[in-house]
Design brief:
The complex is a heterodimer. By secondary structure, chain A is of the alpha+beta class. Chain A has 3 domains: 9-91, no CATH class; 128-236, Butyryl-CoA Dehydrogenase, subunit A, domain 2; 250-386, Butyryl-CoA Dehydrogenase, subunit A, domain 3. Chain A has 12 helices and 10 strands. Chain A has a 4-stranded mixed sheet with strand order 1-4-5-8, covered by helices on one side. A 4-stranded antiparallel sheet of chain A has the order 2-3-7-6, with no helix packed on it. Chain A has a two-stranded antiparallel ribbon with strand order 9-10. In chain A, a hairpin with a 2-residue loop joins strand 2 and strand 3 (152-159). Chain A is globular, with a radius of gyration of 22 Å. By secondary structure, chain B is α+β, with helices and mostly antiparallel strands. Chain B has 11 helices and 10 strands. In chain B, helix 1 (7-23) runs parallel beside helix 4 and helix 8 packs antiparallel against helix 9. The longest helix of chain B is centred in the middle third of the chain and has 36 residues, at 232-267. Chain B is globular, with a radius of gyration of 21 Å. Classes of the chains: A alpha+beta, B alpha+beta. The interface between A and B is large, with 50 and 52 residues.
Chain lengths: 392, 379
């Protein structure tokens, strides 16, 4: 036990292997599918297959389902290396970094055997079915109902902001199974075939052009063996998974390509014959971006380290979430100030600098402090769980 | 990867916490130390020496404990927590580490055992009136050869604890022009040498920053520390230690501020409830927590890099930027939550917020360190 910020030789070798693979195989098209949440299309699926066949998936997953049984650091390295190259995340992101872990923790043996090997192979993806029109920050206030009827649950209601649903095979669905108790004690989780009859998916388009969805359930019959774990324990399963999910979803390496892009721009752009890289204000702003990426990386590393050492996480992943999401907004604001008027030019426009990436990131960045929990809820969690301040 | 203290470091922390709680008893005592010309008591210094603190990084053959820089950082974190006044930082970090880095065998034999025993106080004189923007190499003080001696002329500012130091390690220009990293030479100057005049500056934090005037000060050639014209690199290295050491102090101070702030938010009742139930207050406290979590890991990462000898320039600068700004923010939030109570001079808050300001500017503020980072990024 001693302060140590290095990684093992074995982990470093894996990082090298992943990096070499991605340098060859990660195309612009695949990267865009990931970072712009466009969906898992033909190219993305082929890429997922290649990743698996190159022996790079599943190192942190149990041996009995096709993994190598190693600690989570290997999966963190995988997503970090993807992030460094605009890759954002593994193609079947929700399955691999969120749903799969809850299935391992809480699913039946049958469920694990059915889904986990396919998740490791990158063959299936899930849409996350949590948010509803009346259940945003107050997630337990969901109205969707699942009522037992013989061998099935019959599900009715509406979900919103279900980003992956239009291409995912399955819906990871939270619904009310008991309305007679306080809300968080009456929620259950289900795995629903996304093509079941009675499901309607309607597109919602975000201001940065990402596709997300409204999903309507009208008398949808779901076999009882698709209930995850115990009935009415769904909200607990969602909450126990949250820390770990934050550790996988917040990937500070994703900002390195932006930093590199802005550094190159400042070196290669002149004003009145002088490179922007010699302008102290430009240098200051870029350096501050670098500092905040350093900080994001350390906060994430620490929370991840807690996870793989099985230390109880109270608010650490929440700190990463709040900091990284706000840092992303500051980063894009600084980058736009450096680009000055040109910052507003969209990809494909005449004179657009940096291929319009910064302009896109500006539009996207409004989501970071809202999605997966607002900064306000985050700070309340940090204050109450991290510092022991009283609940109101 | 590991984010934990060693068992020895935990013991250092615990011992330091216990000793300093007793040694720095109350706010009145701190205010006395602010007014006191020396800024510390002989008992405090003696107690620290008995615990072996001055020798924490000095090798055993010179009477020290032979610990690592990380061990020293752990101790400095506790000193920041206690906001302990006195010349520990200047003697051990600015003085001791410079001698360790650059001293000849004879100089080490002479000075290190005395430092370890607490019998010799040192400091480092860099900044000058011309340094209106921080730059440790902007040195105009001259040292001219005169037979077997050098004659030093110039004015140094913001020299910590020069008023109590036995030896003032003085950077003088022996060739080149102000701003050059080359052409700087360090001299071990006995503070009692004729021509050395020290004046206390009156500062926000009540720390003992001094003006030191060198008026035709004669120093023997043997007193050169390191190589003639070649100590720019030594200064750069020592300032990395100093910046990270200061981060450790700031980290400790900010932890103390958050501790007392959160405790107050839990007990102070307004509108019939402890103010800590209100989200406005909770979010202030959460911001303290976020700022401090980052400070812990960047400080220890920088210290770890320096301890292992890995390239550290970028992360050391990041640490000084982040921790300096974080401490300032944490202190400002503390004041906001304590309200009028924390504005009173007998309250602990001003002790910490005033020190936060001093530390922010010690060894380069955030703007200076961001320029270093920009250069490291190839800009």
């Amino acid at each position: 036990m001693a302060w140590d910020f290095g990684i093992s030789k074995e982990a470093e070798a894996y990082r090298q292997k992943v990096g070499d693979f991605l340098d060859k195989e990660l195309t612009e098209e695949i990267a865009r599918e990931n970072w712009e949440d466009l969906g898992l299309d033909v190219a993305g699926r082929a890429f997922a297959k290649k990743l698996f066949e190159a022996g790079l998936m599943g190192w942190s997953w149990p041996v009995e389902y096709g993994g190598k049984g190693l600690p989570p650091i290997y999966d963190f390295i995988l997503i970090d290396e993807l992030g460094k190259r605009w890759g954002a995340h593994v193609p079947n992101d929700v399955a691999y970094t969120m749903v799969g872990h809850t299935i391992l923790r809480r699913g039946s043996a049958e469920m694990k055997n059915e889904y986990i090997p396919k998740i490791i192979r990158g063959e299936i993806e899930f849409g996350l079915g949590y948010t509803e029109p009346e259940a945003g920050s107050d997630l337990a206030n969901m109205k969707m109902t699942a009522v037992e009827d013989g061998d099935y649950y019959v599900i009715n209601g509406q979900k919103t902001f279900n980003t992956e649903s239009h291409y995912a095979e399955y819906h990871w669905l939270a619904a009310k199974t008991d309305n007679s108790v306080v809300p968080y004690k009456g929620i259950s989780l289900f795995i629903v075939d996304q093509r079941s009859s009675g499901i309607t998916i309607r597109p919602m388009t975000t201001m940065s052009g990402e596709r997300t969805n409204e999903v309507f359930y009208d008398e949808v019959k779901v076999p009882k063996n698709r209930l995850v774990g115990e009935k009415n324990k769904g909200f607990y399963y969602m909450m126990e998974a949250l820390g770990s999910e934050r550790n996988y979803v917040l990937v500070p390496s994703r900002y390195l390509p932006y930093l590199n892009m802005i550094v190159d721009y400042a070196k290669n752009t002149t004003f009145n014959g002088v490179p922007l890289s010699e302008n102290p204000l430009v240098r200051d702003k870029i350096a501050q971006i670098a500092v905040e990426i350093d900080m994001s990386t350390l906060l994430a590393d620490h929370a991840r380290w807690m996870e793989w050492n099985h230390l109880p996480m109270t608010c650490e992943p929440e700190i990463t979430k709040v900091f990284v999401s706000e840092m992303e907004q500051r980063m894009v604001d600084s980058a736009m100030q450096i680009l000055d008027q040109f910052c507003q030019l969209k990809e494909g426009s005449k004179w657009a600098p940096l291929n319009g990436r910064i302009e896109w990131e500006f539009l996207h960045s409004f989501m970071t402090t809202i999605g997966a929990g607002t900064s306000e809820v985050g700070r309340t969690v940090i204050a109450q769980r991290g510092l022991g301040l009283p609940r109101g | 990867m590991d984010f934990t203290y060693t068992e020895e470091q935990k013991m250092i922390k615990e011992a330091a916490r216990g000793f300093l709680e007793k040694a720095c008893p109350n706010v009145e005592w701190y205010l006395d130390m602010d007014q006191d010309e020396k800024g510390f008591t002989p008992e405090l210094w003696k107690g620290m020496a008995e615990l072996g603190w001055m020798g924490i990084m000095i090798p055993e053959e010179y009477g020290g404990i032979g610990g690592s820089f990380l061990d020293l950082v752990v101790l400095l974190e506790e000193m920041g927590y206690a906001a302990v006044p006195g010349p520990f930082f200047s003697t051990v970090v600015l003085g001791g580490l410079t001698v360790l880095e650059a001293g000849s065998d004879a100089q080490k034999d002479d000075l290190l055992p005395k430092i370890a025993e607490g019998k010799c106080l040192l400091t480092l004189a860099l900044t000058e009136p011309g340094t209106t923007c921080y730059n440790p190499f902007f040195i105009e003080t001259t040292a001219k050869v005169d037979g077997d001696n050098y004659i030093i002329n110039g004015v140094k500012l913001f020299v910590p604890d020069a008023n109590v130091s036995d030896v003032i390690i003085t950077a003088a220009r022996t060739s080149g022009v102000a701003g050059d990293e080359d052409g700087i030479t360090l001299f071990l100057v006995d503070s009692k040498t004729p021509g050395v005049k020290t004046t206390l500056l009156k500062t926000t934090a009540g720390d003992k920053l001094c003006e030191v005037v060198f008026d035709g000060v004669t120093v023997a050639k043997d007193e050169i520390l390191g190589s003639l014209n070649g100590t720019g690199a030594v200064i750069a290295r020592v300032l990395q230690y100093a910046a990270v050491g200061k981060c450790a102090e700031m980290l400790g101070g900010s932890q103390k501020v958050m501790e007392i702030t959160v405790a107050y938010a839990k007990e102070r009742v307004q509108f019939g409830k402890p103010i800590g139930v209100y989200q406005a207050v909770q979010h202030h406290c959460a911001n303290q927590k976020i700022a401090i979590e980052g400070s812990i890991y960047i400080t220890y990462k920088a210290a770890w890099l320096l301890s292992t000898g890995l390239p550290a320039i970028r992360i050391v600068a990041s640490a000084k930027v982040w921790v300096g700004e974080a401490y300032k923010k944490v202190a400002a939030i503390g004041h906001q939550i304590f309200g009028g109570t924390g504005y009173i001079v007998e309250h602990p808050m001003p002790i910490y917020s005033r020190r936060a300001k001093a530390a922010e500017y010690a060894f380069g503020n955030a703007n200076y360190h961001r320029q270093l980072i920009a250069s490291e990024l190839g800009l």
